[in-house]
Each structure stands twice: as structure tokens, then as C-alpha cells.
Design goal:
Elements lengths: L2 E4 L5 H12 L3 E6 L3 H13 L3 E6 L5 H15 L4 E4 L15 H26 L8 E6 L3 H4 L6 H20 L5 E8 L6 H4 L5 H5 L11 H12 L10 E4 L4
Parallel strand pairs: 1-2, 1-4, 2-3, 4-5, 5-6, 6-7
Helix pairs in contact: 1-2, 1-9, 3-4, 4-6
């Protein structure tokens, strides 16, 4: 049984990925920061359906927490096989000129630097040169990296642009270590991140501009993530799957 660690897995896309991964016979690490009850609910649902899962608290913006998260994963399940860099945050919509540096720094710390920390620890366990068996890393970016999200959250879009570049560079750097690195770019997905941005009904407002005329569901993103995580995509590295209804 392969082990998959999903950051920010107590809600939204992360939770959907955890539930689907368990059904596909992965041992699942449900990482969360603050919402223990939500993470425990995901784990309980997996276990009630005969799956294997554990919830591990870690604030992935803190290096010591990240080290603990990965060492605990190894203690419980053995070496890590798959990392899903899913955790991310969004701040309230506003024009770039009104964003202060505290906000911008917080966005980059959580959406970029935390992913860097997690990936470094994953490589230590996966890399062939370090005694690992190889592995897969899937980064959750956003279509905002291509649109730029003008008038809403340019800072978030810029952070996701950094993740895109990171995905490309890292995929080439660690290919000879037996590690594949890919990304998904979801958009217009029915999760509560839109409430974080200050507009819970954002999808309803813009759905007529989406070619498929609807928002997406977290499980639809999870399906793509787990395809990239599986051997079905064994010849893919450095690629992106846009899950955005045709936008």
C-alpha cells in the first residue's frame, strides 16, 4: 500500500482527494493546521469505509512543523510515496494598489514557501540517491496563474505563477531521482475558498462566462490529481492539467 500525504486536507479539494485516494487503496495522511474536527471527520469517513488514514496537525509555514509532519508520516506508514501540495489561502478581493505587504507576504508564505518546505522533506524520503524508492509530487496551482486575477487577487495569482515555474524546474531537477512532478490548475470549483475571498457566490456570478456553464466539484479535481499521482501517468512529468470548465 502506497502512502500519500495531502496538505490542507481537512476541507475542499484536499478532503475530496483524501477520500478518493483511500478508495484507491492508498494509506492517507490528512494534514491540517487548525480544524482538527474537520480532519478527524475525513479520517473517520475513510476508516468507516475500510480505508487507512491518519490526521497529522502541522502549520506548514513553520519549518519545524513540516519536519515533524514528514517524520511522523514515516513513523506511521514508512517512506512517503506521494505528496500533494494542496494547502493554500486566499485573501479578500481588492485591487493590487490597495494590498499591503503584510497581506502579500502572508500569501506567499503559505502558498509558495510552505510548498517549498514540504517538497524538500518529501525529496529526502523519495530520492533514489537517499535510499528512497522514487515518488510523485502533485502541486495544486490555479488557473489564476494564467489569468492574473485582475481586480481580485493578483497576489494569489502571482503566488500560483511561482508554483507553475517551480513545477517545471523541479520536474527536470529530480527526474533522475525517480520523482515525477506535475500540477493541476483548477478554477471555479465549489469550495469555501471563495468565502475567504469575500464572495461566496462568485461562481454563480461568473458561471455564464465559463464554456461549460457551471462550476466544478472538488472530486473532479481529485480525479485529475490522483491520475497524476498514479502509474497511469508514468511518462508524465512537468505537465499541467487545467480543470476549469473550458476557460
Amino acid at each position: 500500500m502506497k502512502t500519500i500525504l495531502i496538505t490542507g486536507a481537512s476541507r475542499g479539494i484536499g478532503a475530496a482527494t483524501a477520500l478518493l485516494a483511500a478508495k484507491e487503496n492508498y494509506a492517507v495522511v490528512v494534514n491540517y493546521n487548525k480544524n482538527k474536527n474537520a480532519a478527524d471527520t475525513v479520517v473517520s469517513q475513510i476508516q468507516n469505509e475500510g480505508g487507512t488514514a491518519v490526521a497529522i496537525q502541522a502549520d506548514i509555514t513553520k519549518e519545524q512543523d513540516v519536519v515533524k509532519l514528514f517524520s511522523e508520516t514515516k513513523r506511521v506508514f514508512g517512506n512517503l510515496d506521494i505528496l500533494i501540495n494542496n494547502a493554500g489561502i486566499l485573501e479578500r478581493q481588492m485591487k493590487f494598489e490597495s494590498m499591503n505587504m503584510e497581506r502579500i507576504s502572508h500569501i506567499f508564505k503559505t502558498n509558495v514557501f510552505a510548498q517549498f518546505l514540504c517538497t524538500q522533506e518529501a525529496i529526502k524520503q523519495m530520492a533514489l540517491s537517499k535510499g528512497g524508492n522514487g515518488g510523485v509530487i502533485v502541486n495544486v496551482s490555479s488557473l489564476a496563474s494564467k489569468s492574473g486575477a485582475p481586480g481580485e487577487y493578483i497576489d494569489y495569482a502571482s503566488a500560483k505563477g511561482a508554483i507553475d515555474t517551480f513545477t517545471i524546474g523541479l520536474s527536470k531537477e529530480v527526474a533522475n531521482e525517480g520523482i515525477r512532478v506535475n500540477a493541476v490548475r483548477p478554477a471555479f470549483i465549489y469550495t469555501d475558498i471563495h468565502s475567504d475571498g469575500g464572495e461566496s457566490d462568485r461562481i454563480k456570478r461568473i458561471q455564464d462566462t465559463i464554456p461549460l456553464k457551471r462550476g466544478g466539484h472538488p472530486k473532479e479535481v481529485a480525479e485529475a490529481i490522483l491520475w497524476l499521482a498514479s502509474e497511469k501517468s508514468s511518462y508524465c512529468t512537468g505537465i499541467f492539467i487545467d480543470i476549469s470548465g473550458g476557460k
